[in-house]
Amino acid sequence: MSIRVSSRPVLLALLLSLAAAGCGGGSGGGSESGGRLTVWLAVDAQESWPQLVQSTNDRFTKAHPGVQVEVQYQQWPTKNQKLDAVLAGKNVPDVVEMGNSETTNYILNGAFAPIDPARYDQSGTWLPALADACRNDGKIYCVPYYVGARVGVYRTDLFTQAGVSGAPKTYADLTSALDKLKNTFGVGDPNFSAFYMPGRYWYAAMAFVKDAGGEIAVKDGNRWKSSLSSPASVAGLTEWKRLIDSYYVGDRAKDNSDEPAVVGQGHVGVFYGNTWEADSAADPGVGGDPKLKGKFDTFPFPGPSGKLLPPFLGGSTLAVPAKSTRKDLAADWIRMFTDRDSQKALIEANTLPNNTTQLAEVAAGGINGPAAQAAQTGGWMTPFAPGWTSVEKSNILPEMLERIANGKASVQDAAKDADKRIDAVINER
Asked: Is the pLDDT of residue 22 over 60?
Protein backbone atom coordinates (compact mmCIF):
# COMPACT_ATOMS: atom_id res chain seq x y z
CA MET A 1 0.00 0.00 0.00
CA SER A 2 1.47 3.30 -0.95
CA ILE A 3 1.95 6.22 1.30
CA ARG A 4 -0.04 9.29 0.54
CA VAL A 5 1.98 12.45 0.89
CA SER A 6 -0.35 15.40 1.18
CA SER A 7 0.90 17.20 4.26
CA ARG A 8 0.49 20.95 4.61
CA PRO A 9 2.45 23.20 6.97
CA VAL A 10 0.91 23.61 10.39
CA LEU A 11 -0.91 26.88 10.79
CA LEU A 12 0.84 29.74 12.55
CA ALA A 13 -2.00 29.89 15.02
CA LEU A 14 -1.22 26.31 16.00
CA LEU A 15 2.39 27.14 16.78
CA LEU A 16 1.26 29.79 19.24
CA SER A 17 -1.57 27.87 20.82
CA LEU A 18 0.33 24.62 21.40
CA ALA A 19 2.54 26.26 24.00
CA ALA A 20 -0.23 25.32 26.39
CA ALA A 21 -0.63 21.82 24.96
CA GLY A 22 -3.22 19.75 26.72
CA CYS A 23 -5.32 22.74 27.74
CA GLY A 24 -8.72 23.58 26.35
CA GLY A 25 -11.76 21.46 25.57
CA GLY A 26 -11.72 18.26 23.55
CA SER A 27 -14.11 15.70 22.21
CA GLY A 28 -14.29 13.98 25.58
CA GLY A 29 -15.42 17.01 27.54
CA GLY A 30 -12.37 16.85 29.80
CA SER A 31 -13.24 13.50 31.39
CA GLU A 32 -11.48 10.14 31.15
CA SER A 33 -14.73 8.19 31.67
CA GLY A 34 -17.91 8.30 29.65
CA GLY A 35 -18.41 10.56 26.69
CA ARG A 36 -16.86 10.11 23.26
CA LEU A 37 -13.46 9.20 21.86
CA THR A 38 -12.95 10.61 18.36
CA VAL A 39 -10.68 8.70 16.00
CA TRP A 40 -9.56 9.93 12.59
CA LEU A 41 -8.52 7.14 10.24
CA ALA A 42 -7.78 7.26 6.54
CA VAL A 43 -10.32 5.58 4.25
CA ASP A 44 -8.01 2.58 3.75
CA ALA A 45 -9.27 1.12 7.03
CA GLN A 46 -12.90 1.56 5.99
CA GLU A 47 -12.28 -0.03 2.60
CA SER A 48 -9.86 -2.82 3.45
CA TRP A 49 -10.16 -3.85 7.12
CA PRO A 50 -13.44 -2.53 8.58
CA GLN A 51 -13.77 -5.68 10.71
CA LEU A 52 -10.54 -4.78 12.53
CA VAL A 53 -11.89 -1.31 13.31
CA GLN A 54 -15.14 -2.75 14.61
CA SER A 55 -13.48 -5.45 16.71
CA THR A 56 -11.15 -2.86 18.26
CA ASN A 57 -14.07 -0.63 19.11
CA ASP A 58 -15.89 -3.57 20.68
CA ARG A 59 -12.86 -4.49 22.80
CA PHE A 60 -12.38 -0.88 23.80
CA THR A 61 -15.97 -0.23 24.89
CA LYS A 62 -15.91 -3.47 26.91
CA ALA A 63 -12.78 -2.26 28.70
CA HIS A 64 -14.13 1.29 29.08
CA PRO A 65 -17.90 1.10 29.61
CA GLY A 66 -19.73 4.27 28.72
CA VAL A 67 -17.11 5.57 26.30
CA GLN A 68 -18.40 5.79 22.73
CA VAL A 69 -15.85 5.53 19.92
CA GLU A 70 -16.61 7.67 16.90
CA VAL A 71 -14.43 6.82 13.89
CA GLN A 72 -14.32 9.53 11.24
CA TYR A 73 -12.77 8.46 7.95
CA GLN A 74 -10.60 10.97 6.15
CA GLN A 75 -9.45 11.29 2.55
CA TRP A 76 -5.68 11.52 2.12
CA PRO A 77 -5.64 14.65 -0.09
CA THR A 78 -7.62 16.74 2.43
CA LYS A 79 -6.82 15.10 5.77
CA ASN A 80 -3.95 17.34 6.86
CA GLN A 81 -5.64 20.56 5.80
CA LYS A 82 -8.58 19.60 8.02
CA LEU A 83 -6.22 18.60 10.81
CA ASP A 84 -4.38 21.92 10.68
CA ALA A 85 -7.69 23.73 11.03
CA VAL A 86 -8.95 21.77 14.05
CA LEU A 87 -5.60 21.78 15.83
CA ALA A 88 -5.71 25.56 15.84
CA GLY A 89 -8.91 25.35 17.90
CA LYS A 90 -10.00 23.47 21.01
CA ASN A 91 -12.11 20.56 19.76
CA VAL A 92 -9.59 18.09 18.39
CA PRO A 93 -9.75 14.40 17.52
CA ASP A 94 -8.21 12.12 20.12
CA VAL A 95 -6.44 9.82 17.64
CA VAL A 96 -5.19 10.75 14.19
CA GLU A 97 -3.64 8.64 11.44
CA MET A 98 -0.59 10.13 9.76
CA GLY A 99 1.50 9.05 6.80
CA ASN A 100 4.99 8.26 8.07
CA SER A 101 6.50 11.00 5.90
CA GLU A 102 4.01 13.55 7.26
CA THR A 103 4.81 13.43 10.95
CA THR A 104 8.04 15.41 11.31
CA ASN A 105 6.64 18.92 11.01
CA TYR A 106 3.78 18.16 13.40
CA ILE A 107 6.10 16.65 15.97
CA LEU A 108 8.56 19.56 15.77
CA ASN A 109 5.71 22.00 16.25
CA GLY A 110 4.39 20.24 19.36
CA ALA A 111 1.16 18.99 17.81
CA PHE A 112 1.34 15.46 19.27
CA ALA A 113 1.66 14.17 22.81
CA PRO A 114 4.54 11.79 23.66
CA ILE A 115 3.66 8.13 24.14
CA ASP A 116 5.23 5.34 26.18
CA PRO A 117 6.34 2.58 23.78
CA ALA A 118 6.38 0.07 26.64
CA ARG A 119 2.56 0.06 26.49
CA TYR A 120 2.54 -1.35 22.97
CA ASP A 121 3.00 -4.83 21.54
CA GLN A 122 6.16 -5.48 19.55
CA SER A 123 7.54 -1.98 20.17
CA GLY A 124 11.04 -3.43 20.36
CA THR A 125 10.76 -4.68 16.77
CA TRP A 126 8.85 -1.82 15.14
CA LEU A 127 9.99 -1.24 11.57
CA PRO A 128 12.52 1.62 11.52
CA ALA A 129 10.73 3.31 8.60
CA LEU A 130 7.76 3.81 10.91
CA ALA A 131 9.43 4.12 14.31
CA ASP A 132 12.02 6.65 13.14
CA ALA A 133 9.22 8.89 11.87
CA CYS A 134 7.86 9.03 15.42
CA ARG A 135 11.10 9.95 17.23
CA ASN A 136 12.40 13.34 18.27
CA ASP A 137 14.84 14.27 21.04
CA GLY A 138 14.68 10.83 22.62
CA LYS A 139 10.89 10.71 22.83
CA ILE A 140 8.25 8.83 20.80
CA TYR A 141 5.24 10.75 19.51
CA CYS A 142 3.31 8.18 17.49
CA VAL A 143 2.73 4.44 17.13
CA PRO A 144 3.50 2.49 13.93
CA TYR A 145 0.34 1.14 12.28
CA TYR A 146 1.18 -0.60 8.98
CA VAL A 147 3.62 -0.41 6.08
CA GLY A 148 3.69 -1.06 2.34
CA ALA A 149 6.56 -1.93 -0.02
CA ARG A 150 6.70 -1.87 -3.81
CA VAL A 151 7.62 -4.97 -5.79
CA GLY A 152 7.77 -6.19 -9.37
CA VAL A 153 4.40 -7.17 -10.86
CA TYR A 154 4.30 -9.15 -14.08
CA ARG A 155 1.92 -10.75 -16.57
CA THR A 156 2.43 -14.48 -16.19
CA ASP A 157 0.76 -15.24 -19.53
CA LEU A 158 3.02 -12.85 -21.43
CA PHE A 159 6.09 -14.31 -19.74
CA THR A 160 5.06 -17.78 -20.91
CA GLN A 161 4.42 -16.62 -24.47
CA ALA A 162 7.78 -14.84 -24.58
CA GLY A 163 9.60 -17.93 -23.33
CA VAL A 164 10.49 -16.47 -19.91
CA SER A 165 10.60 -19.11 -17.20
CA GLY A 166 9.35 -17.72 -13.90
CA ALA A 167 9.94 -14.45 -12.10
CA PRO A 168 13.33 -12.70 -12.33
CA LYS A 169 15.68 -13.38 -9.44
CA THR A 170 18.60 -11.18 -10.52
CA TYR A 171 18.91 -7.90 -12.39
CA ALA A 172 20.33 -9.81 -15.35
CA ASP A 173 17.25 -12.06 -15.26
CA LEU A 174 15.07 -8.97 -15.25
CA THR A 175 16.66 -7.25 -18.23
CA SER A 176 16.73 -10.56 -20.13
CA ALA A 177 13.01 -11.01 -19.50
CA LEU A 178 12.31 -7.43 -20.59
CA ASP A 179 14.30 -7.97 -23.79
CA LYS A 180 12.25 -11.07 -24.60
CA LEU A 181 8.98 -9.26 -23.89
CA LYS A 182 10.02 -6.33 -26.05
CA ASN A 183 11.10 -8.56 -28.94
CA THR A 184 7.96 -10.71 -28.71
CA PHE A 185 5.26 -8.08 -28.29
CA GLY A 186 6.81 -4.71 -29.04
CA VAL A 187 7.33 -5.38 -32.75
CA GLY A 188 3.63 -5.73 -33.48
CA ASP A 189 2.34 -3.37 -30.80
CA PRO A 190 3.80 0.17 -30.83
CA ASN A 191 2.07 0.85 -27.50
CA PHE A 192 3.68 -2.08 -25.70
CA SER A 193 6.01 -1.33 -22.80
CA ALA A 194 8.02 -4.28 -21.56
CA PHE A 195 8.53 -2.21 -18.40
CA TYR A 196 6.07 0.49 -17.38
CA MET A 197 7.99 3.44 -15.91
CA PRO A 198 6.47 6.93 -16.38
CA GLY A 199 8.92 9.80 -16.11
CA ARG A 200 7.58 11.44 -12.95
CA TYR A 201 7.46 8.22 -10.89
CA TRP A 202 9.82 9.45 -8.18
CA TYR A 203 9.27 6.62 -5.68
CA ALA A 204 10.71 4.25 -8.29
CA ALA A 205 13.56 6.51 -9.39
CA MET A 206 14.69 7.18 -5.83
CA ALA A 207 14.82 3.42 -5.19
CA PHE A 208 17.48 3.24 -7.91
CA VAL A 209 19.29 6.14 -6.26
CA LYS A 210 19.28 4.31 -2.93
CA ASP A 211 20.34 1.03 -4.57
CA ALA A 212 23.40 2.80 -6.02
CA GLY A 213 24.36 4.12 -2.56
CA GLY A 214 22.94 7.60 -3.08
CA GLU A 215 20.54 9.65 -1.00
CA ILE A 216 17.97 12.37 -1.62
CA ALA A 217 19.47 14.42 1.19
CA VAL A 218 21.85 13.90 4.11
CA LYS A 219 22.00 15.50 7.51
CA ASP A 220 25.08 17.52 8.41
CA GLY A 221 24.87 18.54 12.05
CA ASN A 222 21.44 20.11 12.48
CA ARG A 223 21.02 20.92 8.80
CA TRP A 224 19.89 18.87 5.82
CA LYS A 225 21.59 19.11 2.45
CA SER A 226 20.37 17.67 -0.83
CA SER A 227 22.69 15.10 -2.43
CA LEU A 228 21.03 14.15 -5.71
CA SER A 229 24.05 15.30 -7.70
CA SER A 230 26.47 13.07 -5.78
CA PRO A 231 28.23 10.45 -7.94
CA ALA A 232 26.25 7.60 -6.40
CA SER A 233 22.89 9.33 -6.84
CA VAL A 234 23.71 10.23 -10.44
CA ALA A 235 24.65 6.59 -11.12
CA GLY A 236 21.27 5.43 -9.83
CA LEU A 237 19.37 8.02 -11.87
CA THR A 238 21.38 7.11 -14.97
CA GLU A 239 20.40 3.44 -14.70
CA TRP A 240 16.76 4.41 -14.15
CA LYS A 241 16.90 6.52 -17.32
CA ARG A 242 18.46 3.61 -19.24
CA LEU A 243 15.53 1.36 -18.35
CA ILE A 244 13.06 3.99 -19.56
CA ASP A 245 14.92 4.43 -22.84
CA SER A 246 15.11 0.67 -23.37
CA TYR A 247 11.69 -0.60 -22.33
CA TYR A 248 9.09 2.16 -21.85
CA VAL A 249 7.17 3.73 -24.74
CA GLY A 250 4.56 5.78 -22.86
CA ASP A 251 4.25 9.40 -21.81
CA ARG A 252 7.36 10.48 -19.94
CA ALA A 253 5.65 13.56 -18.53
CA LYS A 254 3.19 11.66 -16.35
CA ASP A 255 3.37 9.95 -12.97
CA ASN A 256 2.18 6.54 -11.79
CA SER A 257 -1.11 7.64 -10.23
CA ASP A 258 -3.18 5.78 -12.85
CA GLU A 259 -0.83 2.81 -13.10
CA PRO A 260 -3.46 0.04 -12.64
CA ALA A 261 -5.71 1.54 -15.30
CA VAL A 262 -2.83 1.85 -17.78
CA VAL A 263 -1.62 -1.69 -17.08
CA GLY A 264 -5.19 -2.88 -17.45
CA GLN A 265 -5.18 -1.83 -21.09
CA GLY A 266 -3.02 -4.85 -21.79
CA HIS A 267 0.13 -3.23 -23.19
CA VAL A 268 2.47 -3.76 -20.22
CA GLY A 269 4.63 -6.75 -19.34
CA VAL A 270 6.15 -5.69 -16.00
CA PHE A 271 5.59 -2.77 -13.65
CA TYR A 272 6.96 -1.65 -10.30
CA GLY A 273 4.21 -1.04 -7.79
CA ASN A 274 2.22 -2.09 -4.77
CA THR A 275 0.89 -5.63 -4.56
CA TRP A 276 -2.72 -4.46 -4.52
CA GLU A 277 -2.23 -2.91 -7.95
CA ALA A 278 -2.10 -6.39 -9.46
CA ASP A 279 -5.77 -6.88 -8.56
CA SER A 280 -6.66 -3.30 -9.48
CA ALA A 281 -5.34 -3.80 -13.04
CA ALA A 282 -8.16 -6.32 -13.46
CA ASP A 283 -10.80 -4.17 -11.74
CA PRO A 284 -13.14 -2.38 -14.17
CA GLY A 285 -14.04 0.03 -11.38
CA VAL A 286 -10.63 1.70 -11.73
CA GLY A 287 -10.23 1.24 -15.46
CA GLY A 288 -8.80 -2.27 -15.37
CA ASP A 289 -9.76 -5.24 -17.51
CA PRO A 290 -11.53 -8.15 -15.73
CA LYS A 291 -10.12 -10.50 -18.40
CA LEU A 292 -6.72 -10.00 -16.77
CA LYS A 293 -7.82 -11.39 -13.42
CA GLY A 294 -5.45 -14.10 -12.26
CA LYS A 295 -2.80 -13.20 -14.84
CA PHE A 296 -0.50 -11.23 -12.53
CA ASP A 297 2.08 -12.33 -10.03
CA THR A 298 4.67 -10.48 -7.94
CA PHE A 299 8.38 -10.80 -7.25
CA PRO A 300 10.97 -9.02 -5.07
CA PHE A 301 12.47 -6.53 -7.52
CA PRO A 302 16.21 -7.11 -8.02
CA GLY A 303 18.43 -4.05 -8.18
CA PRO A 304 21.48 -3.31 -10.33
CA SER A 305 23.63 -3.57 -7.19
CA GLY A 306 23.00 -7.30 -6.95
CA LYS A 307 20.75 -6.84 -3.92
CA LEU A 308 16.99 -6.33 -3.87
CA LEU A 309 15.98 -2.86 -5.00
CA PRO A 310 15.32 -1.04 -1.70
CA PRO A 311 11.65 -0.01 -1.73
CA PHE A 312 10.14 3.13 -0.32
CA LEU A 313 8.51 1.95 2.89
CA GLY A 314 5.36 4.01 2.97
CA GLY A 315 2.95 3.50 5.78
CA SER A 316 0.95 5.02 8.57
CA THR A 317 1.33 5.92 12.22
CA LEU A 318 -1.19 6.84 14.90
CA ALA A 319 -0.77 9.89 17.12
CA VAL A 320 -2.57 11.57 20.01
CA PRO A 321 -2.94 15.34 19.58
CA ALA A 322 -1.41 17.29 22.44
CA LYS A 323 -4.72 19.12 22.95
CA SER A 324 -6.75 15.94 23.45
CA THR A 325 -8.29 15.72 26.90
CA ARG A 326 -8.53 11.94 26.59
CA LYS A 327 -4.90 11.02 26.10
CA ASP A 328 -4.95 7.85 28.23
CA LEU A 329 -8.06 6.54 26.53
CA ALA A 330 -6.66 7.43 23.13
CA ALA A 331 -3.43 5.61 23.91
CA ASP A 332 -5.40 2.53 24.99
CA TRP A 333 -7.45 2.49 21.78
CA ILE A 334 -4.22 2.68 19.75
CA ARG A 335 -2.74 -0.11 21.88
CA MET A 336 -5.62 -2.41 20.98
CA PHE A 337 -5.68 -1.36 17.33
CA THR A 338 -1.97 -2.13 16.87
CA ASP A 339 -1.44 -5.14 19.11
CA ARG A 340 -0.29 -8.57 17.96
CA ASP A 341 -3.77 -9.83 17.08
CA SER A 342 -4.63 -6.67 15.18
CA GLN A 343 -1.41 -6.88 13.18
CA LYS A 344 -2.33 -10.48 12.32
CA ALA A 345 -5.64 -9.19 10.96
CA LEU A 346 -3.77 -6.71 8.78
CA ILE A 347 -1.61 -9.53 7.42
CA GLU A 348 -4.77 -11.44 6.53
CA ALA A 349 -5.95 -8.31 4.68
CA ASN A 350 -2.76 -8.42 2.54
CA THR A 351 -1.15 -5.55 4.42
CA LEU A 352 2.30 -5.60 5.99
CA PRO A 353 2.54 -5.34 9.80
CA ASN A 354 4.35 -2.69 11.79
CA ASN A 355 7.09 -4.97 13.15
CA THR A 356 9.83 -7.27 11.90
CA THR A 357 8.70 -10.22 14.05
CA GLN A 358 5.33 -10.55 12.34
CA LEU A 359 6.74 -9.57 8.97
CA ALA A 360 8.15 -13.09 8.96
CA GLU A 361 4.59 -14.44 9.30
CA VAL A 362 3.53 -13.11 5.89
CA ALA A 363 3.08 -16.12 3.60
CA ALA A 364 6.07 -16.31 1.28
CA GLY A 365 3.98 -17.84 -1.49
CA GLY A 366 1.19 -15.28 -1.30
CA ILE A 367 0.94 -12.14 -3.41
CA ASN A 368 2.25 -10.07 -0.48
CA GLY A 369 5.18 -12.38 0.27
CA PRO A 370 7.59 -10.52 -2.05
CA ALA A 371 6.59 -7.22 -0.43
CA ALA A 372 7.45 -8.62 2.99
CA GLN A 373 10.78 -9.84 1.63
CA ALA A 374 11.47 -6.38 0.18
CA ALA A 375 10.50 -4.68 3.43
CA GLN A 376 12.96 -6.85 5.35
CA THR A 377 15.79 -5.12 3.47
CA GLY A 378 15.01 -1.96 5.47
CA GLY A 379 13.97 -0.02 2.40
CA TRP A 380 14.25 3.75 2.46
CA MET A 381 12.31 6.76 3.65
CA THR A 382 12.11 10.39 2.66
CA PRO A 383 14.30 12.64 4.85
CA PHE A 384 12.86 13.38 8.29
CA ALA A 385 13.54 17.05 7.67
CA PRO A 386 11.33 19.94 8.81
CA GLY A 387 10.86 21.22 5.28
CA TRP A 388 10.28 17.93 3.51
CA THR A 389 6.59 18.66 2.96
CA SER A 390 7.60 21.84 1.14
CA VAL A 391 9.93 19.80 -1.05
CA GLU A 392 7.08 17.53 -2.06
CA LYS A 393 4.57 20.32 -2.53
CA SER A 394 7.04 22.03 -4.86
CA ASN A 395 7.19 18.92 -7.08
CA ILE A 396 10.96 19.19 -7.24
CA LEU A 397 11.62 15.48 -7.70
CA PRO A 398 8.96 14.83 -10.38
CA GLU A 399 10.07 17.89 -12.33
CA MET A 400 13.71 16.84 -12.18
CA LEU A 401 12.83 13.33 -13.36
CA GLU A 402 10.64 14.56 -16.20
CA ARG A 403 13.54 16.65 -17.53
CA ILE A 404 15.83 13.63 -17.34
CA ALA A 405 13.31 11.23 -18.88
CA ASN A 406 12.53 13.58 -21.78
CA GLY A 407 16.19 14.39 -22.39
CA LYS A 408 15.67 18.08 -21.65
CA ALA A 409 18.64 18.04 -19.28
CA SER A 410 21.46 15.67 -18.45
CA VAL A 411 21.20 13.66 -15.26
CA GLN A 412 23.98 15.72 -13.67
CA ASP A 413 22.51 19.12 -14.61
CA ALA A 414 18.96 18.21 -13.59
CA ALA A 415 20.20 16.82 -10.28
CA LYS A 416 22.26 19.95 -9.54
CA ASP A 417 19.24 22.16 -10.19
CA ALA A 418 17.09 19.97 -7.93
CA ASP A 419 19.72 20.15 -5.18
CA LYS A 420 19.55 23.94 -5.22
CA ARG A 421 15.76 23.95 -5.02
CA ILE A 422 15.67 21.38 -2.23
CA ASP A 423 18.35 23.16 -0.18
CA ALA A 424 16.27 26.35 -0.30
CA VAL A 425 13.34 24.78 1.59
CA ILE A 426 14.31 21.52 3.29
CA ASN A 427 15.37 23.12 6.58
CA GLU A 428 12.40 25.49 6.85
CA ARG A 429 9.52 24.63 9.17
From this structure: no
